[in-house]
């Protein structure tokens, strides 16, 4: 039986993207409210999110991306400038629509207050977008070196990262024997398993936490490299799997093929269920199912229910605009949900969250589709067309019709976009060890406490003696009076929390702040010469099969106590001994037994933060035996 035509295959690939776009937006709509203890509604939502699985949709996107990028390079295989053309096309494909979407997001976030999370919203919803924006934040998000302005852009980051090495992967897939391709695939899968296991991820989190204060605005780069190692083989599967399926599909056409297709869908969407959450094994199973779906769906002639859906004009249209749809859906869901939270009674949302989420999805889908359509026709399509039709400048002595060089403006454009992705990771790899050692030395010397010293004397003026300027000596700050209450979620607490804390949130009428990474630091001038009691209220980040959370409390480098933080919001007390206190500023360090990213341990989560404990308050008082 003959295979489907290339046009039909591309059309079905677009339709797969359309189906995936629906799964992603529905998944994110269901994440805006908490679902603990909702009984029958919780069961129903789990079933919906099981079969409209946003993560499985992303794996389908990645497999399709690997396949389509390979076809793109196939078309220009005879050109000497094929690789440079590839980079330019990828730049025009990814960045323009992304930049326009970022501008829209900045305007949307600036148009209403969103710093405090609505009481009926989930904790994850409160972390979707930053409370404040700055030009430097916009710049690094524009370059896709950070994604906090649009959390779903982590997939764009991965697409750009894989594009840098894709020509090499393509060369191995087209010019190497089968055993070499198999060895490369096994190697990439091995890297994914090595990086993705929880022990390695914990080590990666520790290294990333150490590097974050050193890397500053580039602190997302280790996460980029981690994602590339974890998901890289998915693109290679898409690049190399078509020949095998061209031989396989004609043999299983009909009833058996349909059964295997539905089985592959079931296996892909349920992979996390029988592996106890997201693991390299669950990812591998999910990718196997997604790969079978993509290639069987594009090559088969059997007209089952899924194939009829793929051939429907609606899903083809939605697939065509799926990139812009994906870019805008997150902010649209966020804005509409925020508006609904403000007009709908929280008691009603808590009683019937499924109705609220259904209304949200019904509002968000047409708005996102309209924006996606406008972006596709006004931004995507014109610039993609431009990248293909700009005439090539021929080198001297090149005959008419022969491949030429890229025009200067396109070459410069591609280099400007790709340069940060080459320079930044290499630069970080070279300077990170030096920065880490230097930072350790500075911290050991006690210089990290300088910003907490009262700057007023230095700002008051400069004394001159013999024509030489002298700054007056810095005075240590006065000790805080006891009892001293510190609400971590209050903006006034920021001066005492120099590192290891995320922005404040609000839920259930209380404010709090999540810890960032595996260590948080608190600096406060406590009265010396006496024992001080520390009472704190905290809640650990828990997930399926999470280990016990233990907080190690250090005062000025001395371990005071290890406190096991139990699930739920609870209060704890420790005594800070007088012998460990200083006569100036005291440094409290909270070291956590584990810190995890919800995106890595919770199904369908897009929260990329590294969380350990949510802190509500700390209170220092004189200890009385």
Topology:
Layout: H1 6-30, H2 40-51, H3 54-75, H4 82-110, H5 123-126, H6 135-142, H7 154-175, H8 178-196, H9 198-215, H10 221-240, H11 242-252, H12 255-269, H13 280-299, H14 305-310, H15 313-320, H16 322-343, H17 346-351, H18 353-389, H19 408-444, H20 456-460, E1 463-465, E2 468-470, E3 484-487, E4 501-507, E5 510-515, E6 519-524, E7 532-540, E8 549-555, E9 558-565, E10 570-576, E11 586-592, H21 598-601, E12 613-622
Helix pairs in contact: 1-3, 1-13, 1-15, 1-16, 1-18, 3-7, 3-10, 3-13, 4-7, 4-16, 4-18, 4-19, 7-10, 8-10, 9-19, 11-13, 12-13, 16-18
How would you describe what is shown here?
The chain is of the alpha+beta class and 625 residues long. It has 2 domains: 16-390 and 407-425, no CATH class; 484-622, Galactose-binding domain-like (Jelly Rolls), CATH 2.60.120. 56% of the residues lie in helices and 12% in strands. The protein has helices spanning 6-30, 40-51, 54-75, 82-110, 123-126, 135-142, 154-175, 178-196, 198-215, 221-240, 242-252, 255-269, 280-299, 305-310, 313-320, 322-343, 346-351, 353-389, 408-444, 456-460, 598-601; strands at residues 463-465, 468-470, 484-487, 501-507, 510-515, 519-524, 532-540, 549-555, 558-565, 570-576, 586-592, 613-622. Strands 3, 4, 5, 7, 10 and 12 form a 6-stranded antiparallel sheet that branches. Strands 6-11-8-9 form a 4-stranded antiparallel sheet, with no helix packed on it. A hairpin with a 2-residue loop joins strand 1 (463-465) and strand 2. The radius of gyration is 27 Å and the shape is elongated. The N and C termini lie far apart (87 Å).
